[in-house]
Specification:
alpha/beta; TIM Barrel; eight-stranded mixed beta sheet; 9 helices; EC 3.1.3.-; metal-binding; phosphatase activity; Putative phosphatase YcdX
Amino acid sequence: MYPVDLHMHTVASTHAYSTLQDYISEAKRKGIKLFAITDHGPDMADAPHHWHFINMRIWPRLVDGVGILRGIEANIKNREGEIDCSGPMLGSLDLIIAGFHEPVFAPQDEAAHTEAMIATMASGYAHIISHPGNPKYPVDIPAIAQAAAKYNVALEINNSSFVHSRKGSEANCRAIAAAVRDAGGWVALGSDSHTAFSLGDFTECRKVLDDVNFPEDRILNVTPRRLLDFLEARGMPAIAEFADF
């Protein structure tokens, strides 16, 4: 459906089951041009050590014509918006997603969740907020959409939220998509794959976007260049190997 997938996990997050090579093979088979590996930040119990993220610099940029982005799904740690991605990790990564996960930030109330999410966006480190429609973490949806537009942060519509995890997300995600549409912000689509088989599956995301007539020109996944331009606008360096994307 789209040639870019921005959220997936490998065996480095030990509750996932595919390798980097598995994702490359599946991307080539499906026509995915660019994807981001985003294993969990090190504050999660089964996450890789921070050296895993620093050492991503050894990865090739392109394999068989498929582009690979070095990413993380960091954890929002507190109401101040601190995430578990800092120091030399920041210099090794192309894409930083950040979100709530119960082992790191236990659910509180709407005010706390909203404050923490907006503080994370304001910090300037996160490019995308993962699964903001999680019903366990209610937020002030208009407020987070307006903050996302202000800080040029994309809010994710997460396909796994509708089929495997975070059940009951549909209404929140529909409201988030509508609020982002009205605020003029970006959405990012993520399969949140924990096996390579679901790479690039945005079937349920597409239903949500269609329900609110979300504009195609505000979806980061439509082309690799759109996503890369977004990251460069956020201050990330241009990646020479992707110049033709």
